[in-house]
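seq:
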Amino acid sequence: MINDRERAQAQKRGGGRAVFSLDSARAEEGFRVEPADDATPETIYEQRWAETVLEARICQMMFKETRFANLARHGPPAPGVLNFKN
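struct:
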């Protein structure tokens, strides 16, 4: 009896939410508005490769800058402490 009452009061999946319609014609209109991209797979690859190289170099420079700032602030590491040289 308790189970029947709980079942009757239970919300279904998505209960209480607005219905969202997937209108394919409307979606196609959105694609027509977007600018066309004439990039080839090769140019996309080269651009991403260049971005990756630049990002790696920037990270490397930031690491070194932080290391030098810590060295200036705290002095050289004490003997016996791991010292990673790069």
